[in-house]
Amino acid sequence: MKPHDGMYIDRAWRPATTPDRIEVVNPADEQPIGTVPAGAREDVDAAVHAARAAFPGWAATAPAERAARIAGLRDALAARRDEIAETVTAELGAPLPFSQAVHADLPITVAGSYADLLGTYAFEEKVGNSTVYLEPVGVVGAITPWNYPLHQIVAKAVPALAAGCTVVLKPAEDTPLVAQLFAEAVHEAGFPPGVFNLVTGLGPVAGQALVEHPGIDMLSFTGSTAVGRLIAATVGAAVKRVALELGGKSANVILPSADLGRAVNVGVANVMSNSGQTCSAWTRMLVHQDQYEEAVALAATAAAKYVPGERVGPLVSAKQRERVRGYIEQGVKEGARIVAGGAEAPLDQGYYVSPTVFADVTPHMTIAQEEIFGPVLSILPYEDEADALRIANGTVYGLAGAVWAGDTDEAVAFARRMDTGQVDINGGRFNPLAPFGGYKQSGVGRELGAHGLAEYLHTKSLQF
Ligand code: NAD
């Protein structure tokens, strides 16, 4: 795609108020692929004003009208499927088949799910002598990261629009081009002026201006726990609603009765997918001590199939690559054993990291506690179920996880005791309608499906 020079505000691509630009780099070959405007406080202000002015009209539309616009948005995204996939491959580095199947198709599905949901969703209900109305929260500021760049935009903007809210989006600076494609699709779908606005820019400048803006009613953020904490403090102090999708350190618990080979192979695939840049990745594999060495050998064999530059793409930036290599070195320093990969660069060019598997990891090591956000798996032994549960729940995070057992009930009983927002049972598939979000420091609130729509609604009761 050809990047836009301006920002999408009030249904027009208009020039930024500063000449500053952000360079977008292809992480596979380290070559620049375009620039976008680095928005300033004034640009955010213009976008919030447009969203404020548009809010009363959009909030008053019938759900069927919003459903029609969102169906149009889904179709406009679907028409750009190849361009979306190629753009995400260029700016994030994901292999093209993965960009097509996940980075393009998943957000198209999610957008469509909200067009469908609006056909049946009850925006009012009777409770005794009351009628309870669900009303849009207002102007929503949305701040998104780069790892699933279009999915994370759609998972915020589309339910907000479906609720009757208006939106100002500040996407990640590493992946702004697919955000521009999203704005093009919004335009084509015919949303009225100001209902959706895009401001590209740096987090501490444009992002912070959006968080602090008195004209927003809610801030929805996906990204690191460190930035999420700052945002929650500011938005909370203003007594506004905040939704946070933050980091994770999820456990893949393999109980002794499970099909070990399948559990290990799916577990390795889960961690290597998207080069390990997935907040819900099962980066800790928990295996009974009697099966430990067998699982380690299986995981090392499986990881070797993920060849950098073929099945595994680069990390998004040199900064992320250095961060991940630093964690690998830290793991070695603290006494973990590398059985696949390592910190050395596997290719001369591009921000690649070798798919890496650590054995002999103990629960308190840095690599077992902190989010690495790269293709790095830690395998930990446990003594019994109680020990496995302690280890699984023993981090500050609680975003996702997996449980494998010979019997579904056994797996469910374990999953119910995990402090985490979603658990895949014996390889259960991702469900784009199921609520997604975290316990503990993994966040506040839920995205996707009806729960994701409810985030953007206030409740009002009238008594009769
Ligand atoms: P980040 O938190 O630095 O950035 C995320 C977004 O916040 C970007 O758009 C950035 O510009 C913006 N931002 C940065 N500083 C800001 C500030 N002071 N005020 C307002 N906005 C600001 O995260 P990242 O490094 O881009 O992404 C990687 C991290 O995101 C991972 O470590 C992972 O924990 C987390 N993540 C979580 C999820 C999830 O759904 N739970 C999904 C993706 C990423």
Span of the ends, CA to CA: 56 Å
- Identify the overall geometry: globular
Bound molecules: nicotinamide-adenine-dinucleotide
- Biggest sheet statistics: 7 strands, mixed
Plain-language structure description:
There is one protein chain. The protein folds into two domains: 6-246 and 442-463, Aldehyde Dehydrogenase, Chain A, domain 1; 251-432, Aldehyde Dehydrogenase, Chain A, domain 2. It is built from 15 helices and 20 strands. Strand 7 (139-143), helix 5 (149-163) and strand 8 form a beta-alpha-beta unit. Helix 2 (63-79) runs antiparallel to helix 5 (149-163) and helix 3 crosses helix 4 (96-117). Helix content is 41%, strand content 20%. The protein has helices spanning 41-59, 63-79, 81-92, 96-117, 149-163, 177-188, 203-212, 225-237, 260-272, 292-304, 318-333, 366-369, 385-392, 408-415, 449-454; strands at 7-9, 12-14, 21-26, 31-37, 124-127, 130-136, 139-143, 166-170, 196-198, 218-222, 241-245, 251-254, 284-288, 337-340, 356-359, 376-382, 401-404, 424-425, 443-444, 457-463. The chain has 464 residues and is of the alpha/beta class. The mean pLDDT is 98.
Task: Please give the structural blueprint.
Blueprint: E1 7-9, E2 12-14, E3 21-26, E4 31-37, H1 41-59, H2 63-79, H3 81-92, H4 96-117, E5 124-127, E6 130-136, E7 139-143, H5 149-163, E8 166-170, H6 177-188, E9 196-198, H7 203-212, E10 218-222, H8 225-237, E11 241-245, E12 251-254, H9 260-272, E13 284-288, H10 292-304, H11 318-333, E14 337-340, E15 356-359, H12 366-369, E16 376-382, H13 385-392, E17 401-404, H14 408-415, E18 424-425, E19 443-444, H15 449-454, E20 457-463
Parallel strand pairs: 7-8, 7-10, 8-9, 10-11, 12-13, 12-17, 13-16, 15-16, 17-18
Antiparallel strand pairs: 1-2, 3-4, 5-6, 6-20, 11-19, 14-15
Nicotinamide-adenine-dinucleotide is lined by residues 143-147, 170, 172-173, 203-204, 207-208, 211, 222-224, 227, 230-231, 245-248, 279, 371, 373, 399, 443.
